[in-house]
Amino acid sequence: MAFIDTVAGRFLGGRDGETAQGVVSRTLSRIASGWLGLVVPLAILVIWQSLSVLGVFRANLVPPPAEVLREVVDLARDGTLWDHIGITFQRVFFGFFWGVLAATVLGALTGEFRLARRLLDPTIQALKAVPSLAWVPLFILWFGIFEESKITLIAVGVFFPIYLNLMSAIRQTDRRLVEVARINGLSSFQTIRYILLPGTLPSYVTGLRAGLALGWMFVIAAELMGASEGLGFLMIDGQMTGRPALIIASLILFALSGQITDKALGWASAPFLRWQDNLETLEEGQRDA
Amino acid sequence: MLEVQGVERQFSGRGGDPVTALAGIDLGIAEHEIVALIGASGCGKSTLLRILSGLDKPTGGAVSLDGRSITGPTPEIGMIFQDPRLMPWLSVRENIRVAVLHLDKPEQERRITQALDRVGLQHAGGLWPRELSGGMAQRVAIARALVRRPTILLMDEPFSALDAFTTASLQDHMLEIWDEERFTLVLVTHDLEEAVFLADRIVVMKPGPGRVTSEMRVDLPRPRDRNSETVLQLKRRLAERL
Ligand SMILES: Nc1ncnc2c1ncn2[C@@H]1O[C@H](COP(=O)(O)OP(=O)(O)OP(=O)(O)O)[C@@H](O)[C@H]1O
Ligand SMILES: [Mg+2]
Q1: CB B44 near ligand 1, within 6 Å
Q2: What is the pLDDT of residues A26-52, one digit of tens each?
Q3: Number of separate domains in chain B
Q4: Handedness of CA B219, B221, B223, B224 (dihedral sign)
């Protein structure tokens, strides 16, 4: 049976020894990887528009998609949309930057040095137990309601997943590979360059992506709590002025922004992670071929 | 000449009382000799090999190479582990390069190409470790050790994870390389046939605490026949001593 399957796979233009099922699922997944993800959003859009037209939704609560789109276009036309998106991106960028910087330095220290871990980690773990939004009053008191308090809040959100991932990844460095480094007379710098960095990179990237997601979460929180610009401000504005289309438009813009930055991070790190032996690289190997 | 004099190794075991892994090991290994260390699990073979490599330090006694004492890893002594220990994020070529970072670029390239040739992997330089079979991966590990041109090569059960066919071909291959490169070979093995087939001398160890209990010379000319009557006889005699 397996043999017949393999022959059929050959017939369908598969590689040596590939089964028919393999070829079909490979082809399907190649198509799917591009377009399948759009099916559900489009379906929702169609249903949403139809229900709006049929009058099932009350237009002053759930506006039809077309109106949401018009809201975005209007904002884009008078130029304010780009200002709002720009300022939000700027906040995420700086918050992410400082969060990454602090997490990387501290995570590297506590991961590598036992003394640093014993000294610093308990405090950091205790701080982690504070729900991050609980910092808001304090930050506003310290840094005012302007940019500093927002960026600090975002940085705090970004910090923890990166710190935790990096520290544990360094601690889990394969001792057997470090022995290979010792046998071959590598310096500490070379050991870091050839073993520690590449070995911790996958977890670090996972931490970065989780941190970035939290960064977007916290920028909304920061902007909802008081801002005169930004996507979060647009949402509050929509609520105050009774424009649900504006709220939904900002919501979608937030989702897109989060997606785009996450994908960018994924693309930027992909060349360094191609060596990995997991299901994701397996899928990619099939796509390349 | 590699000399082991009264080497002891104690580990601090659980609950405070120390575990003696090696007690007073004396051993002299001549240039270009092949010595097999054999003995029950836990008798300290790996511990002894790690001390010879400089990865571990004895708690008593000393190891010296041509009169100079060994206190840490040195370029003259290479080590091949039971598992290939390749860096998954480096291609085969780059994995081997890790062993010759102290040389300039052209010399690195020359040596890497030569080492890959040596183990019959001249076409595998660009592969990732995940794309190698177990036997290929162990060949890369051998190439990584050879590329440094050690005068002593230590191997800790290097073929034990491989199937019988691959093992036999790697053993033959190893003997060829040994013949041409003229290094000294110390290998730990569980496999009596491997010991008799490869070694000039077999050192038998016993646990509790780890010590050398007997030695056996194998004065057969090479190439040896794994299935010859003499080899089978030596295997039987060796089994009796274990
Ligand atoms: N790092 C360590 N810490 C504590 N005890 C150790 C350590 N390494 C080895 N030992 C102990 O030393 C003894 C010898 O171990 P070793 O690994 O050298 O045995 P071996 O002869 O190589 O066994 P095997 O044939 O199973 O590989 C064992 O009792 C082991 O528990
Ligand atoms: Mg062992």
Answers
A1: yes
A2: 766 766 667 888 899 899 989 988 888
A3: 2
A4: negative
